[in-house]
Amino acid sequence: MSDQKNAKQVTVDGGNAVAHVAYRVSDICSIYPITPSSDMSELSDLWATQGVKNIWGEVPQVIEMQSEGGAAGTAHGALQTGALTTTYTASQGLLLMLPNMYKIAGELTSTVFHVAARSIAAQALSIFGDHQDVMAARMTGWAMLASNSVQEAHDSALICHAATLKARVPFINFFDGFRTSHEINKISLIPDEQIRSMIDEELVFAHRNRALNPDNPFIRGTAQNPDVYFQGRESSNPFYTAVPGIVQETMDELAKLTGRQYHLFEYHGAEDATDVIVMMGSGIQVVEETIDKLNAAGAKLGVVTVRLFRPFSMDHLIAALPKGVQRIAVLDRTKEPGSAGEPLYQDVVTALAEAFGNGTIDAMPKVIGGRYGLSSKEFTPAMAKGVFDNLAAVAKNHFTVGIQDDVSNTSIDYDASFDIEPDNVTRAMFFGLGSDGTVSANKNSIKIIGEATDLYCQGYFVYDSKKAGSQTTSHLRFGPDPIKAPYLITSANFIACHKANFIEQVEMLDKAADNAVFLLNSPVPADQVWDKLPQPVQQQIIDKHIEFYVIDASTVAREAGMGRRINTIMQTCFFALSGVLPRDEAIAKIKAAIEKTYMRKGAEIVQLNFKAVDASLDHLHKVEVPGKITANH
């Protein structure tokens, strides 16, 4: 078995991780970019333009259509020619593909669509993440595999592409839009030779031989009458029955190559757990980390990760549950108005009822369902604990967590102060302005740390949907262990404000931990800046013993010939103050990243950035904090 540590470590977001695999095992990518799946389409297009080859030494053909319906139609047509074809989509885009998806599944055609799962436009449009889109596709007959992290999304892409060739059933590989698709994390990249070893060449030839060909005539796409349609619809049953076994077999093959073992349903927690959550997606990591904390204090809790959502294997779910489970909370990241319960909840209830009815289990646990995380609404350890508290107490059913529902009173209470962030993780927040370079600089910082150290890293970026010109907040974590925290930072030990007037508009120091470092970009000199701060900000700095630094990054940028681009300067200050890397090593790494990023724009641009880096620390000043607040404007 290969050791994960020996694999190439890269720092990428979920979209890049998935596209890396999908591109390499495809002949054709039919695309129509839609947020948050756009990066996968754009990367495939870029790689094709650059001549990057797939595992068979060919450059895939990337075809951009004028709608998602066109992209799905192109995929369907390409598949009928025997081409290995994929596409990427989300939300309304996936809904526009449904008619073709029914045909592709009905014809038992091997393919994978990669979906960065996103909200559906209902009372309003939302570009953010949940499972409403993939739940709307669950009746199409496609197998559906869920991922809960960047690493899993990367691995699941290969599992799907290998399994679909064996199963003849098409696959949706889905993962949480933004929370996984745009989270940057350090992962082990599957090498091309391992990707190729997972794809059975005989099955590729079989797929190609099923192509419509005038030299080998075959009838397909007919109209059927009542005498045969029903029988034809049922004839695919053996293929779907075989899918769970094929997927697990493929997961086992990947484990032999990479050391990363996955299961269709995977249990985490106490062996004698009485209370269990069942869910899928990035929220799994939140629950697992919360369980570890609570079980260490004597609780008996567990969580079941659902990976293969369709076909839903009831036997595998029952086998994954601990024998003594008494109460189960099923969490769905979707809303299905008018139903008896959300999709995963109904599947779990059905599985348990059938198992109890046929004697597989001796007692029927209490099962409740809840909704969380719609439109990328936060799901935190405090909320996960609240779900367990509700399960053990009054057990409100069909509940919501993470909102205050004062209309229909579905929401449950939770203690927002509950926190499980480990002390050995650096947590940094950066408040910037859309298009000011803050996000780009932070993405560079993550890659520098991910590639230059043994530290694990995570980056997540919160944008207003208006994007350019509005506030951005970057959340960065660095630590010695894999970071499983798909939620925003609420207790940061480093905070940087890249635009001076934000200090009067945003309550950013509410998120500061005790003894945190605060860096402010301000035109006011260090010996005068204290008196210009709002009194509540002064009080927080005093009460939390915050180290306060100031730099006039705008002047440094202007004098270095950088115009308004302060990102390189603020990045340099972050490395100097955070201590994540030794200062000299950090500056050398920043300059190397600058050279890599800007060399195509010319040596002059690179030198301007170097000049900005060198000038940064000379203009960085520590502010002496008085023992009390002072009068200010």
Can you describe this structure?
The chain has 633 residues and is α/β, with parallel strands linked by helices. It contains 22 helices and 22 strands. The longest helix has 22 residues, at 237-258. It is globular.
Helices and strands, with pairings:
Elements: E1 8-13, H1 14-24, E2 28-31, H2 38-50, E3 61-64, H3 68-80, E4 85-89, H4 91-106, E5 112-117, H5 132-135, E6 143-146, H6 150-167, E7 171-176, E8 184-189, H7 192-198, H8 201-209, H9 229-234, H10 237-258, E9 265-269, E10 275-279, H11 283-296, E11 301-306, E12 308-310, H12 314-320, E13 327-332, H13 343-357, E14 366-372, H14 381-392, E15 399-401, E16 426-433, H15 438-452, E17 456-463, E18 471-479, E19 492-497, H16 502-505, E20 512-521, H17 529-532, H18 535-543, E21 547-551, H19 553-559, H20 567-578, H21 583-598, H22 603-616, E22 621-623
Parallel strand pairs: 2-3, 2-4, 4-5, 5-7, 6-7, 10-11, 10-13, 13-14, 14-15, 16-19, 19-20, 20-21
Antiparallel strand pairs: 1-8, 6-12, 8-17, 9-11, 16-18, 17-18, 21-22
In short:
The chain is of the alpha/beta class and 633 residues long.
Alpha plus pi helix count: 22
Structural class: alpha/beta
- Unreliably modeled segments: 1-5
Sheet with most strands = 9 strands, mixed
Instruction: Give the termini separation.
Output: 65 Å
Query: What does the overall shape look like?
Result: globular
Give the strand tally.
22
